[in-house]
């Protein structure tokens, strides 16, 4: 049953709702959890807040009626087949996604994609404007909705508008390639407060405003030309629901399932695990290459060592994703053909989505978690892994190119481009004495437990609600540099000496 209310004091807008509606050929409707870290984080935040969530329900055509799920009011926005092709697969995931992730694959630029992006952003802004109570707080999410803040401000100047960037914000040299770069910046500057994963992302945004809009800037503030407004861009790194996930991981059924997983894999001495959307940013090819070389060199061999790679299907109609899937599956086939024995595969490749309980059991079963992205805004999988290791077992191999690494320095760090270095990190993760690994795990867990998603949301909303109504740049220009609370937040705990 949809809730009876017509307006909300807190409205969030994200491209996806937390659940997808999937209609089968026989007309039956199934509700499935949507993929990705944004949904994982915001779903746990919204369970504690009374608010509405505006987003796409995952099917083409007219928007379904609003509905409630898990205590959250969900308000679907409809996308036509052309909107999905041009706005979602095209502009969002074949133009912005590669530009914002270091152009790991080339970006495509099409004017009709841009038209669709504007059109759909306007639709989201109108849906939010209709749902927001007078003076409401509106929290817009991610790269798919960068025009919404300015569009919404025009429709509803009374509401307070925040935007959070779940992915990296690119250096100006890359951002400048976008033919619509000024419009994107102006769209974001419609917000009262802009949140980023890392200080470097916030700085990239401020620099882009200075260089591409000739905006006046001071530290983390950008003056909006032609108005008296100043917008703050700051780092507030996202996190996971530490308490909730730890509770789940401690359930006897989850722990039993974890033991069962190990057993069904033949109780390997070392179980390595990768969990990613099948995305070229995640460094899955680099991880497989390093693993294959360790097998070739005889430093790892099944059944003592095995790798489970969970690769969730993602954006399967976008060319680069189709190509990646082909490459990964070919590589897995080659490795297994060469190094598996009967009953002891070198790589277990799983192209499915699993319930949270199964993911928690997998994390607990894994001796070494491989998180090797070439670029990632945060990577919640890394934080979920350490959250689930209440037994202090396991070791995290973590790419320096993730947001998570800026908080989890104690992990076994790697540069995934450096295959030799990645191999060494994997071997070190296996060979480090258990008591040292436990100390590292304790430090990682402390960081995530002290900086969980509830704290992230509270800090974000406090920063948004306290954003000055009309600050003038001159008023802050000569003030002494205030210590940046985000900087302290983002700096890692000292490494615990073994
Ligand atoms: P991204 O948002 O880029 O996908 P993150 O690591 O930040 O990357 O978040 C991924 C989220 O999706 C995590 O919460 C993770 O547990 C979840 N996830 C990844 N793969 C699966 C899967 N196969 N089944 C269920 N959940 C998954
Ligand atoms: C990342 C993005 C999210 C996105 C998710 C899943 O986490 O930051 O905005 O929802 O990936 O991708 P998808 O394209 O399936 O929504």
Automatic annotation (TrEMBL):
InterPro entries, sorted: Glyco_trans_20
Q: Per the record, where are the segments of Low complexity compositional bias?
A: 477-498
Q: Which GO terms describe its biological process?
A: trehalose biosynthetic process
Q: Which GO terms describe its molecular function?
A: alpha,alpha-trehalose-phosphate synthase (UDP-forming) activity; trehalose-phosphatase activity
Q: Which Pfam families match?
A: Glyco_transf_20
Q: Where is this region: Disordered?
A: 471-498
Q: Which GO terms describe its cellular component?
A: cytosol
- Leader peptide range in chain numbering: none
Homology family: Belongs to the glycosyltransferase 20 family.
Q: What PANTHER family has UniProt attached to this entry?
A: BCDNA.GH08860 (PTHR10788:SF106), TREHALOSE-6-PHOSPHATE SYNTHASE (PTHR10788)
What is the protein named?
A: Trehalose 6-phosphate synthase
Q: Tell me the organism.
A: Terracoccus luteus
């Amino acid at each position: 049953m949809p809730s009876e209310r017509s307006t909300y004091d807190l409205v969030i807008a994200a491209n996806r709702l937390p659940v997808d509606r999937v209609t089968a050929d026989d007309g039956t409707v199934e509700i499935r959890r949507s993929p990705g870290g944004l949904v994982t984080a915001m779903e746990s935040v919204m369970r504690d807040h009374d608010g509405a969530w505006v987003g796409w329900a995952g099917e083409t055509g007219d928007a379904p009626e609003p509905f409630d799920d898990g205590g959250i009011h969900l308000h679907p926005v409809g996308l036509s087949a052309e909107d999905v092709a041009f706005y979602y697969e095209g502009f969002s995931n074949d133009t912005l996604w590669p530009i914002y992730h270091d152009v790991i694959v080339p970006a495509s630029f099409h004017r009709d994609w841009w038209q669709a992006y504007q059109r759909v952003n306007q639709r989201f802004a109108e849906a939010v404007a209709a749902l927001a109570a007078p003076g409401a707080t509106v929290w817009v999410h991610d790269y798919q909705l960068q025009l919404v803040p300015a569009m919404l401000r025009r429709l509803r100047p009374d509401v307070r508008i925040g935007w959070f960037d779940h992915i990296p914000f690119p250096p100006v040299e890359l951002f400048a390639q976008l033919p619509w770069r000024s419009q994107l910046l102006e769209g974001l500057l419609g917000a009262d407060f802009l949140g980023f994963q890392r200080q470097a992302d916030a700085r990239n945004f401020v620099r882009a405003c200075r260089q591409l809009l000739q905006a006046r800037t001071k530290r983390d503030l950008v003056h909006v030309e032609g108005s008296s407004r100043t917008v703050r861009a700051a780092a507030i790194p996202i996190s996971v629901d530490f308490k909730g996930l730890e509770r789940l991981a401690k359930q006897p059924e989850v722990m039993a399932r974890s033991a069962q997983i190990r057993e069904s894999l033949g109780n390997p001495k070392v179980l390595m695990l990768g969990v990613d959307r099948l995305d070229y940013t995640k460094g899955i090819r680099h991880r497989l290459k390093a693993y294959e070389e360790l097998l070739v060199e005889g430093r790892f061999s099944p059944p003592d060592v095995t790798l489970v790679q969970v690769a969730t299907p993602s954006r399967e109609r976008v060319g680069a994703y189709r190509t990646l899937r082909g490459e990964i599956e070919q590589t897995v086939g080659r490795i297994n053909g060469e190094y598996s024995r009967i009953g002891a595969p070198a790589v277990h490749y799983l192209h499915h989505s699993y319930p949270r309980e199964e993911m928690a059991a997998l994390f607990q079963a894994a001796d070494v978690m491989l998180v090797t992205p070439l670029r990632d805004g945060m990577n919640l999988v890394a934080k979920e892994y350490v959250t689930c290791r209440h037994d202090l077992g396991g070791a995290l191999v973590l790419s320096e190119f993730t947001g998570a690494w800026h908080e989890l320095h104690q992990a076994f760090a790697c540069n995934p481009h450096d295959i030799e270095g990645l191999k060494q990190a994997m071997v070190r993760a296996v060979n480090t004495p258990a008591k040292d690994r436990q100390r590292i795990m304790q430090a990682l867990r402390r960081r995530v437990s002290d900086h969980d998603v509830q704290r992230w949301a509270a800090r974000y909303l406090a920063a948004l609600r306290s954003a000055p109504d009309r600050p003038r740049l001159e008023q802050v220009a000569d003030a002494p540099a205030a210590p940046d609370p985000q900087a302290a937040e983002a700096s890692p705990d000292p490494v615990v000496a073994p």
